[in-house]
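Appendix B, record 7
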Amino acid sequence: MTTSDHPWLGDASSLVDAFRSGERSPVEELEATIAAVEGSTLNAFSHLDLAAARERALAADITLPFGGVPTAIKELEPVAGWPHTEASLVFKGRRATQTAHHVRRLVELGGANPVGATTASEFGGLNVSVTRINGVTHNPWRVGRTVGGSSSGSAAAVSGGLVSLATGGDGGGSIRIPAGYCGLLGMKGTFGRITRAPHAFMRPNTVVVGNLSRSVRDAARYFDVCAGVDTFDPSTLESAGEWERNLGQQDLRGLRVAVLPSIAGVRLESGVAQLIEQQAQLLIASTGMVRVPLTLELPNLAAQWMVGNMATLVADLGDRWPACASELTEEIEIGMRLSHALYNLDTAAVAEQLRVQANEVMARAFEEVDLVICATNPGPAFAADAAMSSSERSFIDWAKDSAVGRYGTRAALFGLRAASTLSPRLPSKLLGQMAERFPDLVTMGGLTMISNMYGNPAVSIPAGTLDGLPVGMQVLAPRHRDAVLFDAALAVEREQPWPLVAPGV
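Structure tokens (predicted):
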């Protein structure tokens, strides 16, 4: 697959096969990985733990599912003894005292060898690949373009040929979005499929953890190792087990499929809709699925979603806020201040009503169809140093560039907060107007967010390129139908194999 001087460019499963056959060794693979990471200009890693990785390589148990595979860990996931900054200057210097339970499973049950932490967007709040603490992470397909977020460095490391496996998390699209931009498989399982412990927030109940992978079998094997009940996360589900063994066993013939290149009012860039239509038709034809019409009118949840999600960040920052405001990116700071100004019981009630409405829309849709196919992202990767995902003027741009300036914006939001105490319904009205005026609130994860809200599984499958950059085709299934998505992705992989790494790696 590769010479021993370079990291393995196949999938993680084939690397394990190479270990078992004696073609490669965990030690030489790790050394090749270290050399590649240290020579890389992608800025995919924020921390390396080389001494421990070398010890694990020497003692690697290659009989385990990922035995000896050098693996990257998203920096939002704690690993005991590693820096735990959550990609923010606020927590610079902090070290984790516990290891995320699914990472522990990956190492102890799977045999994976963590080499370091990959960059992420600050607190996972944006689907961009730039932070104040880590700088800019670049797309291996074209330096100067984004990897997306929040699993930025993980996608760059896997697509860029540095490691064959990396962890990710998805609270609004953060596995699928970078997978789409980097030509990888990005599987978001049913909510609760993999543990979020040890600190599993009970709201907004949308975050799913998983991995960025080069192949379907790697993602399925990851489920075999990491899925299942954890008493520290009461949302976890029983694992169906043998995900990899059961690949290809689902009967896809006759499944009803709706092809809606855009959902939730997201405007796609030129060529995306046509590519999704083309790839969807190829999948339908190769599997014997049946295309059916579907109207999917989702409520606009973006603004309420944005302010409501800040609750967990408030809990995370604790009494550091608002003194730490100057250490945050302006986008996160303004989001925090906006949320403080606009979030009240009335806003929460409206958000809950919208979520129930969205759930009902999705439930009715999955009574009519078995799968929904749409785009993963509005277009190919945008500029790597962009602070927001939309090329249009955003609310954040308006707030930062307004005549009153940054401090004036703070004062204005403080005044708005005071006004909302007199008119409790004012914030919800303003949020609705914001969503109409600033389309970036919809574009930012607008195609992926609904599957986090409803909790259904969704997968981003490489669907070819536009202008030499990858485009992801997203397939949505009803809750607990993860296996159907694995097999739909497998059908694409078999009929139209995608590049496992970026060209030129």
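Remarks on this record: The radius of gyration is 22 Å. Confidence is low (pLDDT under 50) at residues 402-409, 418-422.
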